[in-house]
Amino acid sequence: MSILITGGAGYIGSHTCVELLNAGYEIVVLDNLSNSKVDSLDRIREITSKDFKFYQTDLLNKAELQTIFAENNIEAVIHFAGLKAVGESVSIPLHYYHNNITGTLILCEVMEQFGVYNMVFSSSATVYGMQEQVPLSEELPLQATNPYGRTKLMIEEVLRDLYVSNKNWSVALLRYFNPVGAHSSGFIGEDPNGIPNNLVPYITQVAVGKLSELRVFGNDYSTHDGTGVRDYIHVVDLAAGHLKALEKVMVSSGVSAYNLGTGKGYSVLDMIYTFEKVTGRSIPYRISNRRPGDIGISYADPSKAQKELNWVAKKGLEEMCLDSWRWQSKNPHGYEGPSKEQAVLNVVK
């Protein structure tokens, strides 16, 4: 029996593949490589010394998806695949709705066709919208404020409706907070296309000299240093959460939502100063105006995941920063160029 990982070549997907393989699972990876690199899959094989099948295809291609299910004994699906840039979703909402929602509908149709009802869904804390109340618990009313967040919210509703129609469905909705860090080997990590949308890859690209300075959006929030506070979680802790959720959906039915976060908030300046402390690299930054729609403080209440999944985030802020820097310094051009180790090997050869 195999676990199908949609979007398995991406940042969170690749780290989850490593955790699954190391835990003894057989996996099948599907990815259209629109926002990921096939090199990450080779690196997963290097890290784990295990092989797996890879299909370069799209969830919108129903015939190819049916072929994957026909050729493999799929037991459950971990569904990462989807477009994820908030700003881009505002510019091209139809593309996001079609890709994320239609792709998931087709996936669910094929799963039902082949009698596969277990899913771990990659949702997001964006489904909480502009909540002023912290920490954020799963019981809060949901209110996405952009097309990307609405696709996640709509998919959550679709999956709940599926269970109402067919009690065989067993789904975990994992609401991520702010994934950072990388595998401790430095072989896989976050490799965003273009200018990073997220804070930590922006910091690491400044540290490695790809970008000149970091812009900090707002220093007048009601926080300990005026900058925005968020819940940052190490991507390896996040990946471990998927294994715990997978274990649960395999032995139960129903639809449950879980926050995956640390339950602690760190400011932008906390992140900068911690990164400088553990790496010895200076991060020049400039204060800019607040971005519209940003709130001052957002962090998770992860107690439900701890109670029902027996999962808790273990890695602290310094480890998040060190692992992010290890990935970026070993791979200054991401997956596109050779890592420093590979470059040395090429010279020796």
UniProtKB/TrEMBL annotation:
SUPFAM superfamilies in the record: NAD(P)-binding Rossmann-fold domains
GO molecular function (one): UDP-glucose 4-epimerase activity
Pfam families, per database record: GDP_Man_Dehyd
InterPro entries: NAD(P)-bd_dom, NAD(P)-bd_dom_sf, UDP_G4E
The reaction(s) this protein catalyses: UDP-alpha-D-glucose = UDP-alpha-D-galactose
Keywords: Carbohydrate metabolism, Isomerase, NAD
Known cofactor(s): NAD(+)
EC number(s) on file: 5.1.3.2
Leading EC class: isomerase
Residues annotated as domain NAD(P)-binding: 4-321
Superkingdom, taxonomy of origin: Bacteria
Subunit structure: Homodimer.
Protein family membership: Belongs to the NAD(P)-dependent epimerase/dehydratase family.
Protein name: UDP-glucose 4-epimerase
Gene coding for it: galE
